[in-house]
Amino acid sequence: MKQSEFKKRRKQLMQRVGKGNIALIGSAFTRIRNRDVDYPFRQDSDFYYLTGFNEPDAMAVFIPGREQGEYILFCREFDEKKAIWEGAHAGLEGATKHFEADDAFPIDDLDDILPGMLEGKTKVFYPMGRDSDLDHSLLEWINHIRSQSRTGAVAPGELVSLETILHEMRLFKSTAELKLMRRAAEVSAHGHVKAMQNCKPGMHEYQIEADLVHHFMQEGLRAVAYPSIVAGGKNACTLHYTANKDKLKSGDLLLIDAGAECDHYAADITRTFPVSGRFSEPQKQLYQLVLDAQYAAIEQIKPGQPWNLAHDAAVEVITKGLVSLGLLKGRVKKLIKDEKYKPFFMHRIGHWLGMDVHDVGDYKIDQQWRLLEPGMVLTVEPGLYIAADCKSVDEKWRGIGIRIEDDVLVTAEGHEILTSAVPKTIAEIEAIMQAA
Ligand code: GLY
Ligand code: MN
Ligand code: MN
């Protein structure tokens, strides 16, 4: 992502924050995994969105209209010894030179410098309640200013959630963002195809996971957007199954929910296919039902449609189908009203997708489902999960879990499926597996 993109975002943010106010946002932290070993560092999405700065121990400050510079970055000072152990870091010079901060200060001086920046401002925009240390520090800085009121110092009087501005911005993807999302989607889709081609009875779930990650990394995408779900047979009925440790059996389905991250942008794809390469009759019937529900839901993705219509369309197809297959009994309308489909389809149709797999952005405005607009990206992921011990249905359906998930961009004309490179019809899946 070019610096000009981050600059554009900062300008937009600055306009919304307004003169006389200030905004701050901290970076993510490193977290200890065990002695001397950290978890892989992943920058905070909001922070990265505005800065492109990929280090911990940093704080970005935005002061619209400040004469000496509107964008200030507090970060680690360059330290040669640290560089030997941990590699390059920008330092203050890099922060201004490469990351285009107007001013940079050592993060260790935050307590000394920030009160002076807060002084005289009306509102402080910041990610309220996300980091209790920052909540605490902010009140301390404000109290410090208040203690000097006799010298004429005026402390800010309003704390405002930065997310209300930022997350609305993040909901609409720019051309540069879509380029990264398309790349994440494309690489992830090919990873799923490879998993289909490599899958054989007797393999373990983790071996399929390894195939996916291998492909992502070979393509230069080192991080997964979320822990991969590779769930054979009844494991697929656990929605966020990530143990990925069981042996794959002929006759079972395999559900894979996995996506790579490309420069902080996620893909999120689910496919379900038979371990042996051929669906059984009951598997075929349930699979086709989920696929029909997904088609019906995707048809609802166009500008001006309320977000929930895709969900409602899927619920209707699924409920009708469950009645015709005999898993539910009764009138479709009443079954939908009584949510009788919920033991089998218990999650929503999807979510916004972007830097976070469950991305930011409001789903309702003034308590009404919001209307879709071009530039939004969302997943469409209906599923059916028939628990292994579900006594209310015929035995042949039990222990089957199916989800089909694609990433869909709302366009001016309707929609574009970003993940269409991975097949999903029964005929296509069987053909690709048998040709392998
Ligand atoms: N991978 C999580 C989800 O599909 O929402
Ligand atoms: Mn999803
Ligand atoms: Mn998913």
Task: Explain what you see.
With 436 residues, the chain is α+β, with helices and mostly antiparallel strands. It has 2 domains: 166 residues, 3-Layer(aba) Sandwich (Creatine Amidinohydrolase, Chain A, domain 1); 264 residues, Creatinase/methionine aminopeptidase superfamily (Creatine Amidinohydrolase). The protein contains 13 helices and 21 strands. Strands 6-5-4-1-7-8 form a 6-stranded mixed β-sheet, sandwiched between helices. The chain has a 3-stranded antiparallel β-sheet with strand order 9-12-13. Strands 10-11-14 form a 3-stranded antiparallel β-sheet. Helix 5 packs across helix 6, helix 8 packs across helix 9 and helix 10 runs antiparallel to helix 11. The longest helix has 24 residues. 42% of the residues are buried. The mean pLDDT is 97. Bound molecules: glycine and manganese (II) ion (2 copies).
Summarize the structure.
The chain is an alpha+beta fold and 436 residues long. The protein is built from 13 helices and 21 strands. The protein folds into two domains: 3-168, Creatinase/prolidase N-terminal domain (Creatine Amidinohydrolase, Chain A, domain 1, 3-Layer(aba) Sandwich), CATH 3.40.350.10; 172-435, Alpha-Beta Complex (Creatine Amidinohydrolase), CATH 3.90.230.
